[in-house]
Structure formats: structure tokens, C-alpha cells
Amino acid sequence: MKIVFATGNPHKLQEINEISNGSAVEFVLPNEGFNPEENGSTFEENSLIKAQEAFRVSTGMMCLADDSGLCVEALNGAPGLHSARYAGTQQEKIDKILSELAPHTNRKAKFICVMTLLDTDGEVLHVSKGECQGEIAKSQSGKNGFGYDPVFIVEGTNLTMADMSEDVKNKISHRAKALSDMLSFIETLK
Ligand code: IMP
Asked: What percent of the chain has pLDDT over 90?
């Protein structure tokens, strides 16, 4: 079964296909012209916007979209929806989190991922959510992954996501959890 995955990022597509390896689903990129305006006020709204934009350019295909971000408790859930545009470069985003958290003792944080699946008529079939709990490190560590991985210590470990191999991250991440729920739902469609 081919499902469009609403991203312009081939790396993200590859990650999603690696996580779902072994299932009957193959995710493919949207047709040309995919350019969502992510102006929703929740992860749910933004994942719906991305799914509908993928459907607009790939009419007649089932479409799956995700929206994700890092929510830090002591920063009232920031950067949250704004994780991708919290500061300039990724290093600047990491530096900003570390300096904003410096006065706080509570370093609890979580990654959230919401996925929305549309059917071949563009109607919502299923929404899934995955969370990964952890805390923000005092300094960055690790070379793997992307985004905030070097400062996110996964609950129950003393490793940042960037210290983990891709295989391990793909078993415990917010995206892996949301996708696992979504794939179980897709199985029921057969
Ligand atoms: P989006 O879901 O592609 O809009 O991603 C939002 C932003 O959240 C990314 O640009 C990253 O900054 C951050 N983010 C989402 N998932 C992860 C992750 O697994 N590791 C690190 N950062 C992440």
C-alpha cells in the first residue's frame, strides 16, 4: 500500500520508512508543489494542514502528515509549535534553550508528535499521538540525530537522543510511537 507522507524532506521520509520497515506500507513524497502554511495553533491543526496540502497536490492518494516539537515544562511548553523557528541555526536554538533554562531547576521536557491520516477522498481517517518524556541536559552531547537531540536526555537513561543510535531512537521516539499506533490502525483497513 502506497501512502503519501506530507514532507518535502527526503531524510524524514527515509526515517518514516525505516520505522515502518516490515509493514505493508510504503511512504512516498507528495507531488510537486507541496508547500503547507503551518499556521495552526496546535500540533493537531498543523498536522491536518500538512495532510490536506499533501492531498491537494496528490489527489486520490491516502496522505499521512506529522507535526512535532519539543515542549519544556519550565518554559510553559516552549518552544512547542515554534520548535522549528525558535532561533536561527540549530546550534542557536540549542543555545537559547540552555540559556533560558539556566535559572530553572525543573528541566523536564517532552517531544510530541501528532499524525493525521486522510483517506483517498481527503477525509480524516485517524489521528495518533506519541510522546517521549525526558529532560534538558545541562550541556549538549552526542553526534547523531537532528534538531534538539543533543540536549534531550531520554527518561530512564542517561543518554541524549543524539548519543543513541538511529535504531534505538527509532524504537522510543515520539514519532515512532505515533507511527506505531497509526500502522496498527492501517492494518485494520485491509
Ligand atoms: P516538524 O514536525 O517537521 O515541523 O518539526 C518541528 C521541529 O521540532 C524540528 O525542526 C525540530 O527542531 C524539532 N523536532 C521534532 N522532532 C525532533 C526529534 O526527534 N529530535 C530533535 N528535534 C525534533
From this structure: 92
